[in-house]
Amino acid sequence: MRIKYEVKRGNLHYEHHEEDTGTMTVFVAEGFVPKEIVKKGKQEARAYAEADVERQIAEGKERFDAIIAFRRNPDVTVSIRRKGIVIEGKIVFVNPGRIDVELVSPPEFKGRGDINFGYASAIAGHRVFDDENPLAFSKCGLDAARTALGWTYDRQKYRRDHAKTIALAKELNR
Fold it and tell me: Reduced to 3 states, what is the DSSP secondary structure of residue 164?
């Protein structure tokens, strides 16, 4: 483990960067060695820093794993009302650039849809996740999921309402 040491504001500071090439993630651990430990010498200062770096990296990886698990299976229910019909669905996958929803009710319109969050969304300050809690959706993220749910309902309803014409067009194109 390579730890970089330097003096900041008169205190012994340490910093370590650990890259996880599988996830392309860099975990950073840093802190200050307490003065009473610095007074004990090199070995104690190094032991303190190494133990704290290991703790911080382990906590960072645990947090990262929790975020990835949440994004892969958020299991958050959203609903909207359209012309007196309650439409319910679940957010089934999410990343900072996209939200996937599954329409659950009404059952005859079951289907999946998504909505993208691109560069313009980021510039406008629209975020999928809450800035304070990466394991929660922002208001904007939930609103977007509801929009995707509405789009999915509209698409599924259109397909049902025009099924015969859609089938005829496919048949004619063969």
Answer: helix
Tens digit of each residue's pLDDT (9 = 90 or more) over 74-119: 889 999 998 899 999 999 988 878 899 999 999 999 999 999 887 8
Rounded to whole angstroms, what are the CA distances from 2 to 15, 20, 32, 61, 92? 9, 15, 16, 18, 40
What are the domain boundaries of the chain?
4-72, 76-172
This prediction's pTM: 0.73
Which strands form 11-20's sheet, in the order they lie side by side?
A: 4-8, 11-20, 25-32
Residue 96 sits at φ, ψ, to 5 deg, of: -60, -15
The residues near 31 (Cβ < 8 Å, ≥ 6 apart) are: 13, 14, 49, 52, 56
Helical packing angle, 163-172 and 139-161, nearest 10°: 70
